[in-house]
Design a protein that fits this description.
This protein is mainly α. It contains 34 helices and 8 strands. The longest helix has 17 residues.
């Protein structure tokens, strides 16, 4: 084997060619195309080398070769459409084949305006558009809201006699519908007649109506269709889910006689958008029972579901499925795997995925840094941040949210302030509201409540509810009733519908024994019709997610669970546990307060786990609200008495309980 004589950039391994493929004017078109298609579509380094060979061998003037080269440069995975544009601008008199590739690349790379500009270049060069040109142009107009240009393109379609093409027609219908011009869209549909071959156009009309929230009109088209295919049902299911009508979407899904991968993805994505993660997981289980292989597109979405409900078993199954089917772990899938393992409490597995990834985007680093931060591994998060800088990966605003949170939860005030001050000075990142909130949290958690208030006063922007909320939480932690009261009422004015703000202010009053003020807050809630969010805890046991709520007796094993709960509390009291009744914001008898504390959802979930888990196994619990101090103390003792490690995720962070200690060091 001999390599080309072309001078390549330092450090690049050149594409290897056999002796009969050495660069020369005799290099065949087929050989060049083979190099592009086999070596270059996923490697920008090899693509640039192939580009050099094409220029040297004078194949660049061959539109089929230059078009294929352009297609490779337009690969969205390269995230650099500027290079594709430079190549396109250098192609002499590009024909319709080349232009269509550029048009498609413009859309795929989020540059729809360039597609519209390209059409004008085609007209100047007299490069006659064909039936493959207009669907892309209609889509570009829909994305950019270019009504005038869209109407003009439609006129050209009519002029060229292409109105009968189904793909052009369906794209035109979707375009007009996106403009809200339903009469024009319906006119295009009606012109197609009512033949089976036009079902794609009917589906486009349904999709257009639903994207604009016209549910009744979409349903009317669906009902009156002369023929329906799976795509028709899918369009209705996706659209209804997008409009928030997930129950209607599920009814249609259950009525379908035949389903494809898109059908399953549509209903699952619908549940995810409505944050109905348990229901999404149930549909995925049904999909597995029916031996339907999940598409690659669905996997990151399902990993998000597993992350939110703490379903480690299902998440590991997906990871195993990826490995069994040799699915490439790109930045999107890899980041989703890391996020899932992080949120299921398995930092070791998240790190393993991170280390094995060949391509890491900034989002991948952020997922790992943020994961270490919320698990209390501040030093490790900082080390990874340093490594990220060492590998010349520029951090973004999300990165700094992760490292600032790490510092806040570890009490690393000076280090956190240093990072915040470096954002603009060193990294040219303008701090946003979330970063200001992180600094308030950093100062407040460390007990520097007055400094946190002064920081808010010095902010160059008006503080939002998140910033004030961070200060209110600091007041709760450190018992600053006076400032907490003032900040609490500011928040109630800013967010009168947020039940959490009322609950936090009420807790501050209750802890101070100011029961009249507790009653005043509760009266205001009642007058405004505000209902508190009930605490709920979930546990994945044997691949099934169990959910528990205070006072809810719907679980089939509730009798056995409560018996275990009583035994657990008796053992805790023998070990010296004393209920922290200051956590109860009701002016009731002490005994009643203890009963309320005993029935917190996380304690019920823990009792269920103790009832079923094998000795020495780790218990995983996910709670929707912040864990209270009483439950936190109880969990530490349970880990010591029963010998189980417990990982609990609450609304703020992760707690790893082991041998009577917690990873948060009672600082959360």
């Amino acid at each position: 084997m001999s390599t080309t004589a072309t001078n390549f950039p330092s450090g690049l391994k050149p594409i290897e060619l056999s002796s009969d493929q050495a660069p020369s004017s005799k290099l065949s078109q087929k050989t060049v195309l083979d190099i592009l298609n086999k070596k270059c579509f996923h490697s920008l380094q090899h693509l640039k080398q192939a580009h050099a060979i094409i220029l040297k061998t004078a194949h660049f003037h061959d539109h089929f070769v230059s078009g294929t080269l352009l297609k490779c440069y337009a690969n969205p995975n390269f995230n650099n459409f500027t290079l594709a544009t430079k190549v396109f601008d250098c192609i002499p008199r590009p024909n319709v084949f080349v232009c269509n590739i550029y048009l498609k690349g413009s859309i795929e790379n989020g540059e729809p305006h360039k597609a519209i500009s390209c059409y004008h270049k085609m007209m100047v060069l007299n490069s006659r558009p064909n039936k493959f040109t207009y669907p892309t142009l209609f889509k570009a107009c829909a994305v950019t809201g270019s009504v005038k240009e869209g109407v003009q393109f439609h006129a050209f379609v009519v002029k060229q006699g292409l109105t009968g093409d189904v793909h052009i027609k369906s794209a035109g219908i979707q375009m007009y519908a996106s403009f809200g011009l339903f009469r024009e869209a319906r006119k295009m549909l009606d012109e197609s007649g009512k033949t089976q071959t036009d079902v794609i156009c009917w589906n486009a009309m349904i999709d257009g109506y639903l994207k604009c929230g016209e549910v009744e009109a979409a349903n009317e088209v669906f009902v009156n269709m002369p023929d329906k295919n799976v795509g028709s049902w899918n369009a209705m299911i996706s659209g209804l889910a997008r409009c928030g009508m997930i129950e209607n979407a599920r009814t249609l899904f259950d009525e379908m006689g035949e389903r494809d991968e898109i059908s399953w993805s549509a209903i699952i994505d619908g549940y995810i958008k409505q944050r109905c993660f348990k229901e999404a997981l149930e549909v995925f289980h049904q999909m597995q029972r029916e031996k339907i292989k999940p598409s690659r597109h669905l996997l990151p979405s399902m990993l998000t579901v597993c992350a939110n409900v703490g379903s480690l078993d299902q998440g590991r199954w997906i990871h195993s499925f990826v490995e069994r089917n040799s699915i490439q772990v790109d930045a999107v899938l890899g980041t989703a795997l890391i996020d899932m393992y992080v949120k299921c409490g398995r930092l070791d597995m998240a790190w393993e995925v991170f280390e094995k990834m060949k391509v890491r985007e900034v989002s991948t680093w952020n997922a790992m840094i943020g994961g270490l931060a919320i698990h209390g591994r501040a030093e490790d998060a900082m080390k990874l941040f340093t490594k990220m800088n060492g590998e010349k990966r520029k951090p973004n605003g999300v990165t700094f949210v992760g490292v600032l949170n790490a510092c806040a939860h570890a009490g690393m005030v000076e280090r956190g302030l240093g990072l915040f001050n470096s954002m603009k000075r060193v990294y040219e990142i303008e701090p946003e509201m979330e970063h200001f909130g992180c600094v308030v949290d950093l100062l407040g958690r460390a007990g520097l409540v007055e400094e946190a208030e002064k920081f808010i006063e010095s902010m160059p922007v008006k503080p939002n509810v998140a910033v004030w909320g961070a200060l209110l939480n600091a007041c709760r932690i450190h018992g600053n009733v006076e400032l907490g009261e003032r900040v609490g009422w500011i928040l109630l004015d800013m967010e009168p519908r947020n039940s959490g703000r009322y609950a936090l202010l009420s807790n501050i009053y209750a802890k101070a024994g100011r029961w009249d003020d507790v009653a005043r807050v509760r009266k205001l809630m009642k007058e405004r019709g505000i209902e508190t969010v009930p605490g709920s805890s979930m546990m994945d046991m044997g691949g099934k997610v169990h959910e528990f709520k205070m006072g809810d007796s719907s679980h089939p094993q509730m009798k056995e669970i409560y018996l275990m709960l009583e035994k657990m509390m008796d053992k805790l009291q023998i070990e010296g546990y004393s209920p922290n009744t200051s956590m109860v914001s009701y002016d009731i008898e002490e005994e009643e307060k203890e009963t309320v504390l005993k029935q917190h959802s996380e304690k019920i979930a823990l009792a269920f786990g103790l009832l079923h888990a094998k000795p020495g196994t780790t218990l995983h619990i996910v709670k929707n609200l912040r864990v209270c101090a009483d439950c936190h103390s109880a969990f530490k003792l349970v880990s010591k008495i029963y010998g189980h490690n417990i990982i609990m995720r609450d609304r703020v962070r992760y707690h790893h309980f082991k041998n009577g200690m917690c990873s948060c060091k009672d600082f959360w």
